[in-house]
Every structure is written in structure tokens, then in C-alpha cells.
Amino acid sequence: MLGNHDNKELTLYALSKKGFRVLINELVPLYRKNDYILIAGVDDLRMGTTDIDKTLRDVNGEPTITLSHNPDIVTEIKRENVDFVMAGHPHGGQICIPFVKPTIMYPQFDTPYMAGLFRARKAMLYVNKGTGTSSYPVRFLARPEITVFSLTT
Q1: Model-wide pTM > 0.85
Q2: Is 83 left (phi over 0), alpha (psi -120 to 50) or beta?
Q3: 125 and 117 in contact (C-beta within 8 Å)?
Q4: Tag placement on the chain: N or C end, fewer CB within 10 Å?
Q5: pLDDT digits (tens, 9 = 90+) for 3-40
Q6: If DSSP codes are grouped into helix, strand and coil, which group holds residue 8?
Q7: Which domain covers residue 47, as residue numbers?
Q8: Hey, which bits of the chain come out as E strands?
Q9: Count of beta carbons in the 10 Å neighbourhood of residue 97
Q10: Where are the alpha helices (DSSP H) in the chain?
Q11: CB count, 10 Å around CB of 113?
Q12: What is the CATH number of the domain that holds 67?
């Protein structure tokens, strides 16, 4: 999926040229032998045209992972059968000063989902801190991360 600072045309072109499939309000099955899970990718919640209802319309109890740049997408998911949401966006606060709410870089966000694993409605939500920065090219007490999940049957 794309982020809020991505140039949509250029990013889609570059990624597709390298064989990546970008999911924008799209649901696709991911198969392994006789098993599969559904992967839903939605457009950016603030800068894109998110259509979560359309994207999840065909989910009927199958295991489903939803990918969203912005973790606040969990407030938009009305369906009960989304199992896991993976997101990024707040960079873990990017600049975190001890004993101060870690939204220094993002005062416009009043989200409880800055980084880590959460229970959000009936789904689990994981918010990754990412490796980049936004606005200011500095991170403080918000270590960059790349997370690897292993799916097993």
C-alpha cells in the first residue's frame, strides 16, 4: 500500500516495474498449497481515497490481514471478521521525550496507536515504527524497525 507522502504515479510505476503489486482498496488471496488467507490493502486514510467497505465486501470468515498506512483505519472497519491489521505512519512518535506524550512530530494525531501491538475492536493491530522520518530528518527514542511476521498453519 502507499503512504501519505508517496507520489502515487511514480511509486506505482517504480514498484510495478520491480514486480511488486500495490494494493489500493483491493482484496487478494494469498495461497500456500491448499490453504489461503486474504490480504486487503487500502489507500491512505488521509491523502488517498479509502474504501474499506468495498475492499472487505467479499470477506466471509476467511482469515484476513488488512494493510493500511494509517493505523486509524481500525476506526473505519465496521466488519467483524478482520483478524489482523498492519499499519505504520506515526513513526513511533519519531521524536519521543521522556514523560511527554510521544506525538511531538504529530500533534494533529490523537491516536493511541503510536507503535506496537494492540487489540482494536475484534482485530489485532500492529503499528510499525518504520525506518524513515517525516518533516524533520531526525528520530529520538523512536528506534527504526523492520518487523517480520511468520504465518503458520
Answers
A1: no
A2: alpha
A3: yes
A4: C
A5: 776 778 898 899 999 999 999 999 999 998 888 899 99
A6: helix
A7: 8-127
A8: 26-32, 35-41, 64-67, 84-87, 116-120, 123-127
A9: 11
A10: 8-17, 52-55
A11: 21
A12: 3.60.21.10
Distance CA(52)–CA(85), nearest Å, equals 12
* Residue 106: how many other CB atoms lie within 10 Å: 18
Amino acid at residue number 145: E
Cell numbers describing residue 142: 523512536
Distance CA 52, CA 66 (A): 9
* pLDDT single digits (tens) 89-123: 776 667 777 777 654 444 445 677 878 899 877 78
Encoded amino acid at 54, one letter: K
SS3 call for 136: strand
Q: Is 72 part of a structural domain of the chain? A: yes
CB 34 within 8 A of CB 75: no
The owner of cell 494493510 is: 67
| Domain count within the chain | 1
| 70 pLDDT more than 70 | yes
